[in-house]
């Protein structure tokens, strides 16, 4: 009788293993991770000795997947799994809990410092080059950790805390590690409250464009304005764009925010003299959204704003997320007559090769170089080099962050034609911009 049951029991065990196994990497899957943590919590219920979990998320995996192809992406995930499995000690377990997320259970890690140290070691291991055929790919990882301290810590709660820490780590930059703290939870709650308020503001149309002048440096004549999003909440007060723009980007509604600001900016710009252009920033996520071009053109059509008067600004970092998608979007925008500007040039993750791969009408020299132009020889040489390169490529240049006459004079001396900064005007709302133009632009308005 025992011999008759053994095959059935073996089959049942094998079937359960399949249910708990990730077919691509051979690691345990999310269900196995939960089972392992649940069991460890039960074992330590009477004497809750600490243990740690960590979530590792691959930084920049999607662009690599897009550039090298799905098969290559799968091969990289298999190599990641092999490295992580080889790095585990006899007590620890690694599982694949998401598309490019891996969960690690550390039963014998008892402190936050030890958890962070283990995570940094794995990040170092994951940062080594990956070989895909005859090509080499590089990527890094971020990690969020949490520790079990009492029976109140369920598996779901531990995972939620680790995800909160991971979110904090990714906001700090690539290859970072964060361990969950109560302060982190409070910060996350603050961000969530701000997100909810911002969503309401976008739905109600309460985010406004302000406009900063862009000038021809030699003549100081205004040639256009850059639209900048501004938000003042009834309870929060004026919220800096450096705070609310990343929240909209990370929480997935930057597209709605951008469309609102562009619509209002285009409506305001209809009252400007026709020779002035409107400059508008696109976020990195909009460069991977295939609806971006249609959304922009639809707004221009509804407002009656001439596409040839619009210039969109892109960042080097945004281009790196998905170069193929960005290239298509740039080509479609240009075919509609919209100008393309590369913003913050010299500070992003891109290379000079991007200037060959993409066609830009304008470069904007980052304010970091302009602010140190007068006292730092390296900044001076970089600005000179950018201007010479742009001239050779037939691109216009605007220097950002000009605050002093001496900076403007030096830029003119180097051959820079365009400028932007507080020297020429701070951002103003639509009404204030019209008043500014009446003061600085001769002749009738409109």
Main β-sheet, spatial strand arrangement: 8-9-11-12-13-14-15-16
Please write the CATH class name of the largest domain.
Alpha Beta
Corresponding CATH architecture of the largest domain: Alpha-Beta Barrel
Euclidean distance between termini CA atoms: 95 Å
Number of strands: 16
Helix content: 40-55%
Number of helices: 17
What composes the largest sheet? 8 strands, mixed, barrel
Give the CATH H-level superfamily of the largest domain. Answer: EAL domain
The coarse overall form would be elongated
Count of individual domains: 2
Rg for CA atoms: 27 Å
Broad structural category:
alpha/beta
How confident is the prediction overall: mean pLDDT?
90
Low-confidence runs: 1-5
Strand fraction equals 15-25%
CATH-derived topology of the largest domain: TIM Barrel
What does this structure look like?
The chain is 49% helix and 21% strand. With 446 residues, it is of the alpha/beta class. It has helices spanning 2-19, 30-43, 61-68, 70-87, 112-126, 155-172, 182-204, 241-250, 254-269, 292-303, 316-321, 323-335, 353-357, 367-371, 377-393, 405-414, 430-440; strands at 51-59, 93-96, 101-106, 130-132, 135-137, 140-148, 177-179, 207-216, 221-233, 237-239, 277-281, 310-315, 339-345, 362-365, 396-399, 418-420. The strands form three sheets. Strands 8-9-11-12-13-14-15-16 form an eight-stranded mixed beta barrel, surrounded by six helices. Strands 2-3-1-6-7 form a five-stranded mixed sheet, sandwiched between helices. It has a two-stranded antiparallel sheet with strand order 4-5.
């Amino acid at each position: 009788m025992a011999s008759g049951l053994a095959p059935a029991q073996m089959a049942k065990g094998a079937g359960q293993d399949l249910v708990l196994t990730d077919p691509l990497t051979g690691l345990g899957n999310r269900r196995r991770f939960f089972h392992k943590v649940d069991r460890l919590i039960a074992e330590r219920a009477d004497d809750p000795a600490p243990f740690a979990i960590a979530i590792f998320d691959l930084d920049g995996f999607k662009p690599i997947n897009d550039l090298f192809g799905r098969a290559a992406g799968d091969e990289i995930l298999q190599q990641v799994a092999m490295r992580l499995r080889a790095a585990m000690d006899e007590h620890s377990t690694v599982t694949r809990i998401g598309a490019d997320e891996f969960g690690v259970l550390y039963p014998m890690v008892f402190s936050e410092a030890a958890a962070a140290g283990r995570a940094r070691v794995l990040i170092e291991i994951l940062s080594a080059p990956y070989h895909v055929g005859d090509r080499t790919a590089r990527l890094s990882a971020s990690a969020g950790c949490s520790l079990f301290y009492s029976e109140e810590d369920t598996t779901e709660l531990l995972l939620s805390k680790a995800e909160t820490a991971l979110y904090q780590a990714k906001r700090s930059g690539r290859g970072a590690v964060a361990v969950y703290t109560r302060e982190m939870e409070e910060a996350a709650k603050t961000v969530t409250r701000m997100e909810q308020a911002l969503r309401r503001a976008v739905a109600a149309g309460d985010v406004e464009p302000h406009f900063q002048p862009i000038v021809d440096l030699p003549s100081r004549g205004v040639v256009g304005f850059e639209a900048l999003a501004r938000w003042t909440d009834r309870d929060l007060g004026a919220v800096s764009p450096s705070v609310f723009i990343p929240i909209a980007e990370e929480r997935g509604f930057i597209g709605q925010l951008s469309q609102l600001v562009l619509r209002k900016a285009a409506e305001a710009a209809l009252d400007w003299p026709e020779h002035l252009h409107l400059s508008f920033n696109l976020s990195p996520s909009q460069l991977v959204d295939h609806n971006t071009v249609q959304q922009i053109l639809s707004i221009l059509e509804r407002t009656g704003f001439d596409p040839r008067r619009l210039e969109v600004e892109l960042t080097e970092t945004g281009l790196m997320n998905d170069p193929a998608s960005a290239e298509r979007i740039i080509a479609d925008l240009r075919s509609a007559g919209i100008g393309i500007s590369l913003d913050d040039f010299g500070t992003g993750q891109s290379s000079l090769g991007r200037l060959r791969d993409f066609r830009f009408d304008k470069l904007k020299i980052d304010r970091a170089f302009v602010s140190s132009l007068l006292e730092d020889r390296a900044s001076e040489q970089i600005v000179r080099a950018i201007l010479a390169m742009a001239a050779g490529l037939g691109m216009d240049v605007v220097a950002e962050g000009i605050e002093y006459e001496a900076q403007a004079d030096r830029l003119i001396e180097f051959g820079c034609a365009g400028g932007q900064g507080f020297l020429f005007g701070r951002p103003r709302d639509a009404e204030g911009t019209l008043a500014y133009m009446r003061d600085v632009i001769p002749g009738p308005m409109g």
